[in-house]
Design goal:
Length: 238
């Protein structure tokens, strides 16, 4: 068994939904694994199952039960510390080429790289197709306008106001429909991108906002969870 200090762990981006979004590099990295760790939230975690489905035969799977996460900065810090502990123990107890499968791209709103480093491991990263790239591709739009800036942010941050310095904003992790505060903006909204449940709606918020709210609410109720991302575009201030 290796010592923690020289143990190198792969974080492999698997794309944000469609297995066809696996890159060749990701396929090769998956095939080279001896053991794959999968964070799981309860037995019916669809995202964990989707990761599992991508594991080549012969790769040993180790499930790590994701600890419960409370609200607020302190609770998140406790949750993160617990994840570091669980990862340290699970990886240290395994042998061979170890990896984690990261949803979308590991470098975007995914704490795994930081958790692994904090746990004392070296990290190799394989990029993946993020929900952001998938969204833009589905609508056939570019994220930025000519020489413009794009900001990727969270629903909570958008609730605090439109960010300065960007007229084009991509919003993730939004449980509160923050776009409703911007009726004049154009929205490109996608949920469960790349999966059989994919939903796409676009238009001016004042015209399509209520419909997004309706279908989003119904889908969330039916599936028990929601993953959506949107590009919000206001009239150019340039
Ligand atoms: C923890 S972040 C993970 C992001 C991921 N690393 C990526 O590159 O897309 C989860 C958020 O990503 C977005 N997301 C991930 N997969 C998605 C999908 N298939 N469709 C729409 N949004 C998705 C949602 O905003 C969701 O709340």
């Amino acid at each position: 068994m290796n010592s923690d200090a020289d143990r190198h762990v792969q974080v492999i981006g698997i794309g944000a939904g469609d297995p066809a979004w696996l890159t060749l590099e990701a396929v090769r990295a998956l095939e080279a694994l001896d053991v794959a760790f999968v964070f799981q939230k309860g037995a019916d975690d669809e995202l964990a199952a989707a990761r599992r489905a991508l594991l080549p035969e012969g790769v040993r799977e180790v499930v790590i039960e994701d600890p419960p996460r409370g609200r607020g900065a302190e609770a998140v810090a406790v949750w993160r510390a617990e994840r570091v502990r669980l990862v340290r123990e699970a990886v240290a107890a395994s042998d061979g080429n170890a990896g984690f499968l990261a949803w979308g791209d590991p470098t975007l709103y995914d704490g795994l790289i930081g958790v692994l480093r904090e746990a004392g491991f070296g990290v190799g990263v394989v990029p993946g197709i993020s929900a952001v790239s998938a969204l833009a591709a589905r609508f056939g739009v570019a994220l930025n306008r000519v020489a413009g800036a794009v900001l990727i942010t969270t629903g909570r941050r958008l609730e605090a106001g439109w960010p300065s310095d960007a007229d084009d904003v991509v919003v993730m992790l939004d449980a509160g429909l923050a776009f409703r505060a911007y009726p004049d903006a154009e929205i490109f909204w996608g949920a469960y991108l790349g999966t059989p449940d994919e939903m796409l709606l676009s238009g001016v918020v004042a015209e399509v906002g209520a419909e997004i709210e309706r279908v989003r609410g119904a889908a969330r109720l039916r599936k028990g969870w929601m993953f959506d991302t949107y590009l919000l575009r206001r009239a150019s201030s340039a």
